TrEMBL record:
EC numbers for this chain: 1.1.1.-
Protein name: SDR family NAD(P)-dependent oxidoreductase
GO molecular function: oxidoreductase activity
Species the sequence originates in: Cypionkella sinensis
Keywords assigned by UniProt, alphabetized: Oxidoreductase
SUPFAM superfamilies from the UniProt entry: NAD(P)-binding Rossmann-fold domains
Amino acid sequence: MIREFDLTGRLAVVTGGAAGIGRAICTVLAEAGARVVVADRNGDAAASLAAEIDGLALPFDVTDAAACEMAAADLAAQHGPAVILVNNAGIVMNAPSLEVDLADWRRVIDVNLHGVFHTCRAFGRHMVAAGRGSVVNISSICGEVTVHPQPQAAYNAAKAGVNLLTKSLAVEWSGRVRVNAVAPGYTATELTLLGRSKPEWFSTWLAGIPMGRLAEPREIALAVAFLASDAASYVTGSVLTVDGGYTAI
């Protein structure tokens, strides 16, 4: 292995780590040598994956700021502070803006934007104190362009917020902690099941992707591993788009 990609001995926390892209990220980071903490609201699923990859399970809800602080403090006390944080937890709800229930709007913003801030602050304070660390936020092409035909203004707005939060923290914590984001395009996970079941949506998606297919979760995870590693030692405040060319058109 090229030494800059080696994560041996590093403690890595992945939120929303029990399924989809998060599961792939946990697996890839473990393959690179990291000790991975699978953080997920579903404690049983987190524990199951942690056993598979010889990692740790840490169940908590990213929308609960106090729970995030407690999880970070407990982890640091028992195993030392995490030096890698991947903010992957996210949800999407498809509803026209004139009809969306405001509770659903708030829930999407709460998980996808507030949750990223809560975990960045909770785990980031330990990284900043230690003077080292790498944060990778999972954004989306939806934070860069308006996707269609599905209506999802709340998700788009939240991911745009994640992009600028990433850049803001990168500047604040420069010289101590690197903060970057990966912006996946359409990926074959549970999150895109609804769209893949609708021929009119799915055909529109594929027509807009020059590579003509969805990403596999592992392809996103490998980009995360790069940003988490020393191979990206001079990369901070960046949003790495992994979308098969979708946003290049």
